[in-house]
Amino acid sequence: MKIAILGGTGRVGEGLATRWATRHNIYIGSRDVEKAKNAACGYSCRLTDQGFECQIDGTSNKEAVEKADVAVLSVPFEAALDLIECLRPVLKNQILISLVVPMKKENGSFEYTPPEEGCAALRIQHLLPGVKVVSAYHNLSYRKLCNPDKYG
Ligand SMILES: NC(=O)c1ccc[n+]([C@@H]2O[C@H](COP(=O)([O-])OP(=O)(O)OC[C@H]3O[C@@H](n4cnc5c(N)ncnc54)[C@H](OP(=O)(O)O)[C@@H]3O)[C@@H](O)[C@H]2O)c1
């Protein structure tokens, strides 16, 4: 399967890409193509060094969506709403998996701050009526995702 990870240069993106890339084609999306290519190269090297074959490319968020069967939204909540607005013309038949958890840091600790709709995925679905939005992976810590010894 072809999977786009939007914001795939980030902490969760790295964990998902390195776990999926031995079985799927991964497109790391970013606002900055050079940053995406560097991240893709780093993830590929990590897997190759461990003896795995993989296919990971870096590109813009838009091109990643255009190439993929499934897109994973892996950017912070406020960024997600702006990004969706930009990607609306190219998000059509794909499934969009949203990892987004709206959190605000207040006095050194994080607070869950859901939108009026009840959760981030419902807001996103509202903005993208024709797209199949799936809400998933919210309770997977990037630290565990990036550690191949965790979760098998
Ligand atoms: N961290 C966790 O353990 C965890 C666990 C479960 C769910 N989540 C959710 O997963 C999502 C990603 O979390 P993360 O920790 O990986 O986030 P992150 O590392 O802070 O950011 C991910 C990527 O988002 C992009 N980004 C940042 N600001 C942006 C903006 N203003 N506009 C567009 N893109 C922007 C950046 O990519 P570019 O600069 O390359 O564009 C960045 O590399 C979040 O919604 C979070 O709530 C996180």
UniProtKB/TrEMBL annotation:
Organism of this sequence: Candidatus Methanoperedens nitratireducens
Range of residues in the leader sequence: none
Keywords, ordered alphabetically: Oxidoreductase
Any Pfam family the entry gives: F420_oxidored
SUPFAM superfamilies: NAD(P)-binding Rossmann-fold domains
NCBIfam families the record matches: npdG
Keyword Oxidoreductase: yes
InterPro entries found in the cross-reference section: NAD(P)-bd_dom_sf, NpdG, P5C_Rdtase_cat_N, STEAP_metalloreductase
Gene3D superfamilies: NAD(P)-binding Rossmann-like Domain
GO terms for biological process, alphabetical: copper ion import; NADPH regeneration
Protein name stated in the entry: F420-dependent NADP reductase
Any one Gene Ontology molecular-function term assigned to this protein's record: ferric-chelate reductase (NADPH) activity
